[in-house]
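During the reporting period the student researcher (J.K.) took over the structure-prediction task from the postdoctoral fellow and processed the backlog of single-chain submissions. One of the processed entries is reproduced below for the supervisory committee.
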Amino acid sequence: MKIKTVCKTLFLALMSVISLIPFYLMFSMSTFKSEMIFQGNPLIPSNYFTENLKTIFASNFVRSYLNSFIISISAMFFSVLICSMAGYAMNVYQFRLKKVMNMFIMMTMMVPTQIGIIGYMIEMRNFRINNTLLPMIFVWLASGLGAYWMISFFKTSLPLELVESARIDGANEMQIYFQIALPCIRPGILTLALLQFLWSWNSYMYPLVFVNKTENYTIPIFVKSLASAFRTDYGAQLAGLTLATIPVLIIFSFGAKSMIRGLTAGAVKG
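J.K. obtained the following structure tokens:
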């Protein structure tokens, strides 16, 4: 039994090391001057990291970092709120065309988001908000996957008898939703929040389409802007990516257990 435990531990440790190698290489190469990255040994850090940091901080890095935080946190909060409300309504209330609505939500997950980006861009331009951060936030709010996720969690985690008992006791719908329903699906909420933060933080396509001003750059667009037609500053780009990875690693480290619990919820009965 001990040998089996030791082998399992060694295997997990090996997989962890293999998973961390790309992050280490990214940091190690960010310590090189761009021209020296492909000439030196990337496994051994160099001494050019501070110069690369000066390069990115001399540009629009802080504003881009803040923009990414604003977009990701706003998208995470409002997406979880809207999707959880949709999941609650689809499970608790009885109304006409409920099955059609549920089918429509599932159908939205079959359509690639790239198909609707032109229509979405025209819509944002008609509302005169295409040169702001709002289009990059709004696009994450009506998430078919998030709504379906919340519907599934409410179906398995919220007994309707609990809702009826709360109504009999005099609780209104908002009290039932916030004080009773949401605590029942906490793992699902945390999982969806983490996923939405990661998706919006790493998004490249939507900022590429909607960002026309340097003050609206997000991290992916900023890192791309460090390249010109004549020279690509790989060292500075990798330094920017290293700093951009830190929030993701921190959030995932603190929320990994909740995320795994949410992803595996309902996999085992009893």
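The committee noted the following: The chain has 13 helices and no strands.
J.K. will present the remaining backlog at the next meeting.
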